């Protein structure tokens, strides 16, 4: 499985990236600071690194230089993710050895397309497989895009399926509506937060008794609970 290391200090972005990359069949690892990120890169030797420019401990440019001066990591593909959009910042990153440079906020779909293009250029073969999630009375299969509740097939829309899968893959974690919009509807989404409530309500109706897995956390948002 293709391994992607995310070195980024904004936890919401890391979690959104991990969700979307796992959905595409990638194995993800992450670090919230430059020093630990460099350590992980040299120990893990991932297939690609997503690297933020502004990092605590060691900034992205210094980290990239360190990667390119180490025989173990000198050929690692690197995409820089940063809020700095100035042309000089982009040029510096590319001159040091970055393969691509994407500014925030970015389109998740575009980022994934660029990741796949770079991996193809480096000869990395992408195998997109994800295991089914199985609970007492609920089964969610990302590969078949199917859901079974109490033994019966449940027809869901694309967004209903994506929302259910995201919550199930992160069971017992509570997510606010804004966060769910960012992760399921994409980072730059401007959809109203009540859309999340509508989708949760429809999911509960369609899942029947298995809809109990979708818990409302008053004043916060929603979570998936395996009870």
Can you characterise this structure?
- With 227 residues, this protein is of the alpha/beta class.
- The chain folds into two domains: 3-121, Response regulator (Rossmann fold); 133-224, Arc Repressor Mutant, subunit A.
- The chain has helices at 11-23, 34-44, 60-68, 87-96, 108-121, 158-169, 177-184, 194-207, and strands at 3-7, 27-31, 48-52, 78-82, 100-103, 133-134, 138-141, 146-149, 152-154, 175-176, 214-217, 221-224.
- The strands form three sheets. It has a five-stranded parallel beta sheet, with helices on both faces. Strands 6-7-8-9 form a four-stranded antiparallel beta sheet, with helices on one face.
- Helix 3 (60-68) links the parallel strand 3 (48-52) and strand 4.
- It is elongated, with a radius of gyration of 19 Å.
Present the secondary structure layout.
Layout: E1 3-7, H1 11-23, E2 27-31, H2 34-44, E3 48-52, H3 60-68, E4 78-82, H4 87-96, E5 100-103, H5 108-121, E6 133-134, E7 138-141, E8 146-149, E9 152-154, H6 158-169, E10 175-176, H7 177-184, H8 194-207, E11 214-217, E12 221-224
Parallel strand pairs: 1-2, 1-3, 3-4, 4-5
Antiparallel strand pairs: 6-7, 7-8, 8-9, 10-12, 11-12
């Amino acid at each position: 499985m293709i391994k992607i290391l995310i070195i980024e200090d904004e936890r919401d972005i890391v979690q959104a990236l991990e969700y979307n990359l796992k959905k595409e069949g990638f194995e993800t690892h992450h670090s919230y600071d430059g020093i630990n990120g460099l350590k992980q890169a040299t120990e893990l030797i991932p297939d690609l690194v997503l690297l933020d420019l502004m990092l605590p401990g060691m900034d992205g440019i210094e980290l990239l230089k360190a990667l390119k001066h180490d025989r173990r990591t000198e050929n690692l593909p690197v995409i820089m993710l940063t809020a700095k959009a100035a042309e000089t910042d982009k040029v510096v990153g590319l001159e040091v050895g970055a393969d691509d440079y994407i500014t925030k906020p970015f389109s998740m779909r575009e980022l994934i397309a660029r990741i796949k293009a770079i991996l193809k250029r480096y000869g990395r073969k992408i195998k997109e497989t994800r295991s089914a999630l199985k609970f007492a009375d609920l089964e969610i299969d990302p590969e078949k895009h199917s859901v079974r509740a109490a033994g019966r097939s449940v027809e869901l829309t694309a967004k209903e399926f994506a929302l259910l899968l995201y919550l199930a893959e992160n069971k017992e974690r509570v997510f606010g509506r804004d966060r769910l919009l960012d992760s399921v509807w994409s980072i730059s989404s401007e959809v109203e937060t009540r859309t999340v409530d509508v989708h949760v309500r429809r999911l509960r109706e369609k899942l029947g008794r298995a809809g109990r897995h979708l818990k409302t956390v008053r004043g916060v948002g929603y979570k998936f609970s395996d009870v």
